Amino acid sequence: MRWTRTFIPTLKEDPSDAEIASHKLMVRAGLMRKLTSGVYTYLPLGLRAVKKVERIVREEMDRAGALETLMPILHPAELWKESGRWDVYGKELFRPVDRHDRPHALGPTHEEVITDLVRREIRSYRELPVTFYQIQTKFRDEIRPRFGVVRAREFTMKDAYSFHPDEQSLRETYMAMHAAYTAVFRRCGLHFTAVEADSGAIGGDYTHEFMVLAGAGESEVVSCGCGYSATLERAETAPVRPEAGPQSAAAMEKVSTPGMKTAEEVASFLGKPTSSLIKTLLYDAQGETVAALIPGDRELNEAKLRHMLRVDAVTMADPERILEVTGGPMGFSGPVGLEGVRLVADSRVEFMHNCVVGANEQDCHYVNANLGRDFEAAQFGDLVVAREGDPCVRCGKPVSIQRGIEVGQIFELGTKYSKSMKAHYLDQAGQERDFVMGCYGIGITRTVAAVIEQSHDNNGIVWPASVAPYHIEVLPLNVNDEPTMRLAEEVYESLTASGYETLLDDRDQRPGFKFKDADLIGLPFRVVIGEKALGEGKVEVRNRKTGETTKIPPDRLLEKMAALLPEEVREGRAHN
Length: 576
Ligand code: ATP
Ligand code: MG
Fold this sequence. Notes:
Elements: H1 21-28, E1 32-36, E2 39-42, H2 44-63, E3 67-68, E4 74-76, H3 77-83, H4 85-88, E5 104-106, H5 111-121, E6 130-139, E7 154-164, H6 167-187, E8 192-196, E9 207-213, E10 219-223, E11 229-231, E12 253-256, H7 263-270, E13 278-285, E14 288-295, H8 302-309, E15 315-316, H9 319-326, E16 342-346, E17 355-358, E18 364-369, E19 379-381, E20 400-414, H10 416-420, E21 424-426, E22 432-434, E23 436-443, H11 444-454, E24 456-457, E25 460-461, E26 472-476, H12 482-497, E27 502-504, H13 511-521, E28 525-529, H14 531-535, E29 539-543, E30 549-552, H15 557-564, H16 567-570
Parallel strand pairs: 3-6, 14-16, 16-19, 26-27, 26-28
Antiparallel strand pairs: 1-2, 4-5, 6-7, 7-23, 8-9, 9-20, 10-11, 10-20, 12-18, 13-14, 13-15, 17-18, 20-23, 21-22, 24-25, 28-29, 29-30
Helix pairs in contact: 1-11, 2-6, 2-11
The structure holds adenosine-5'-triphosphate and magnesium ion.
């Protein structure tokens, strides 16, 4: 492609709404433009990168035996009512109404549509297992669209759904998808980790998120050198056992703490460390009020509380409810004498002695409260948000926390949708059974952004060859110099004919300007053709990533590129 014949509107300035590197660079390098909040047009260069990721995903899905389909974006509301998600999906679901006043949904994901298809078309265990996938535009009215296409309202996703006779068959496909995802993200040149994630549902189904480690990520990943890794929502860590033996229990005493509500305020008022406080947090767990005890210097992890209580949702109790069950105002709740409420505790509380707790009375706390003597808890477990340096649950070594961008998720759904939507097959004995299902998503456009997030420098994008819009840029320094241009054309033709996707910067611009743009759009290699090197019978080959430059005679160029950019590298099966 010739630069003058395509459309690459590069910009000097960062767009004012861009906070992260990939967003800035995708706009500046002329890959995309915003239409409205969270909605983008892909320009020719950007679209090429998107298609590269799509191709890799397609190849790996096909290899895993998944069947490509294309489902509608417009869904009748009835289908979403059948699954029960019409009422729980909330505002993220776009709900257009047609001319007959019939409500619809714009698909944010396609469990309902595929389950409807399969329940009509597949009858027998003989047709199972089967996996369908599609690559398609998704709509989600995100509360906070930001970071360009990382969190958009309209974006491209690959979604796949598998149907099985039983759990074992599901687990086999799940593992195959895990392997396919690993291959996809490797081929895209990403550093990523597959982490155990929280499913949000009771008990916690089996699910992994594929996280690209990047400072701009919105998710946090807890990991340990031993191989343990999990999302912050899910990550368990162990309590630190105190080195000293048990302290002697001092006499409990009620003290005045006027107006001191937060753990920090109470601790500093009493001249004690925040870690000697026990926070008593009252929650409404689907009708039951529960008190959760955690160390004063930690935060409660609601997902863990949900799992411990085996409920789908927990919400903080309101001040009226707190007054009703504890007899005291919010901020002064404590476990001593608290009756008629289930008390659960973080395991770390078991190792705390002579603690400060609320006295269930305005402006009062107890000091030297002790578990076992002054209060009890019905259940212990890990209830707090993991922290950098906490002991790993598996090996006890300190864990670390990094930020990540979720590029994909795989999920064992079980019979959730087949039950609610009455999707059955007949087993070997002629018995009707619910399909067992799995679902698997990859954010295609988010993956392109994640690649840039991980691979850029101050001057622009540094594309891995597998996702780069073109492999090589041919850059004649002076398009008005006849011998320069003649050679540039020849080089461009021969590279293109040999299968390299090549961009010829044939613009009549100063070299400095063209170099800046070349760095910005970040193709893996640049071949510079200038009068001076030409005088020596050479062209210059520059590696965008390493900055390494070599001068070679033009007739050695193909040989050189074959070494630098073999097919395995262009396909992402190897990286240079
Ligand atoms: P997140 O927690 O980031 O909102 P999610 O759990 O809602 O993601 P899924 O429903 O699992 O995401 O969707 C599958 C994939 O689609 C995600 O792994 C992500 O790569 C991509 N994705 C989800 N929401 C968006 C969005 N708003 N913009 C771009 N890509 C998205
Ligand atoms: Mg989401």
